[in-house]
Amino acid sequence: MFPCLSKMAELVEAKAIEDDEEFEEDESISERLIGLTEMFPEPIRKSCSYAISFLTSATKTSVSAMRSILWIASSSAVILVLPVLFESERAKQHEEEIQQQRQILLGPNAAVSGSGGSSNLLPGMGMVPNPRS
């Protein structure tokens, strides 16, 4: 309608935007959170604070306990289980070497029949005395 009025309205609007920008204060996130907590009553704030500190403490304690349990389990496995595994592997390898020597000396059928069907690792344990004798 009137170009003069529209220009004046734009200037007033621009001035209002500048005024709003001047009054805005730069707040940090912590200041905003503190302002938000003030709208809740004191008992609710304290109970939330206690709950958060309890959860933090419980989490730290459980992580520490899990680290200790994992350390005990892994060191026990290394000390108790690995030597048994190594020894059984060595015995198995020794048995294979004996079968290979029998096969070389007596032929392919001797290695299979010469083993006596004994799968025990200790010598003489697989032999049961004949009850007829």
UniProtKB/TrEMBL annotation:
Pfam families in the record: Tom22
One CC-aspect GO term: mitochondrial outer membrane
Domain of life: Eukaryota
Membrane topology: Single-pass membrane protein
GO biological process terms on file: intracellular protein transport
Parts forming coiled coils: none
Annotated stretches, region: Disordered: 109-133
Main location: mitochondrion
Compositional bias ranges of the Low complexity kind: 109-127
Keyword terms, alphabetized: Membrane, Mitochondrion, Mitochondrion outer membrane, Protein transport, Receptor, Translocation, Transmembrane, Transmembrane helix, Transport
Keyword flag Transcription: no
Localization per Swiss-Prot or TrEMBL: Mitochondrion outer membrane
PANTHER family in the cross-refs: MITOCHONDRIAL IMPORT RECEPTOR SUBUNIT TOM22, MITOCHONDRIAL IMPORT RECEPTOR SUBUNIT TOM22 HOMOLOG
Similarity section: Belongs to the Tom22 family.
Protein name from the UniProt record: Mitochondrial import receptor subunit TOM22 homolog
Organism: Lymnaea stagnalis (Great pond snail)
